[in-house]
Write a structure and sequence with these properties.
mainly alpha, 2 helices, 55 residues
């Protein structure tokens, strides 16, 4: 089996590799989005605490 045959996967390569790509994007989003949301919430909370201290 050559590398080209492996990539082609018997004619289903486009489907298989695009499925892997989509799955990788979804998994990465499942890691990145919560981290970004947590960072945003920490900034908002810090701002609220500063405003409360200055009141």
């Amino acid at each position: 089996m050559t590398f080209a045959e492996f990539i082609d996967m018997g004619g289903y390569g486009t489907y298989v590799w695009s499925s892997y790509g989509i799955a990788l994007v979804v998994l990465a989003a499942n890691v990145v989005v919560p981290l970004l949301n947590a960072r945003k919430q920490k900034r908002e909370l810090a701002g609220k605490l500063r405003r409360m201290e200055n009141s």
